[in-house]
Every structure is written in structure tokens, then in C-alpha cells.
Amino acid sequence: ERGDLLGPALLFFGCRNSTEDYIYADELEEFRASGALTQLRVAFSREGPQKVYVQHLLEESGAEVWKMMSAKGSRGHIYVCGDAKQMARDVNKALLDIIQKHGKLSEVVAENMIKSWSENGRYSRDVW
Prior knowledge:
Elements: E1 9-15, H1 18-21, H2 25-34, E2 39-44, H3 54-60, H4 62-70, E3 77-82, H5 87-103, H6 107-119, E4 123-127
Parallel strand pairs: 1-2, 1-3, 3-4
């Protein structure tokens, strides 16, 4: 609203059903439409012929996530929302895989990179 320039912002949101659980749909769509979010990716695990989870969408966007987060001077952010029990662990694994695959880095370096992103406010999770 203030006109500040922002870096890329991806939001991955996961829930079971779009008609019952997608509680901030209107607001998130407005953020996407306004450009505040570069990309809004939603996973509804109980809709469609196959279950789709946040980590699947994250893996599909792996090259973009890596580029956004690793470019010199990048101010990119990743926001992940959804289930804490399984999803949080699976998303972390997907991020590790993305860093290792697209950055050609070791697992230890990937883990440290995720920790750094989190500490610097570039990787935020809203999980329950």
C-alpha cells in the first residue's frame, strides 16, 4: 500500500478442502493480485484424483525457489502455511532437496542455509 519495493514473495498454503479450510482465500488472492505476493500456491489434499500437498508444489517450483532465495542481494521470502505434524517436516525436506539439487550443495550446507533464512526472516512458517 505504501509503494515500497519488495523482493519476490511466494506463499504456499495447504489444507484439506478449499470450501471448508481456505480461511483467508479472499485476502490471499488480493495480495497476489496486487503484486504483494509474487506467487500464491495452494494445495488441497482432499480435492482431485490425487492428494496434493504443499511440499509437492514447493518441489514443482524448486528452480524458481532456489533462484529467488540464492541470488546475490536477494530479498526473497518463502511463507509456508499448513499442518504442523507431517507437512512442516515434509516441507523442510523439500527445501533441503531443492537446495541440494539446484544449488549442488551438501545436506549440511543446505541445513545451514535454511537455518540462516529462518534467522534472517526470509523463511517463515505458520503451521498448526
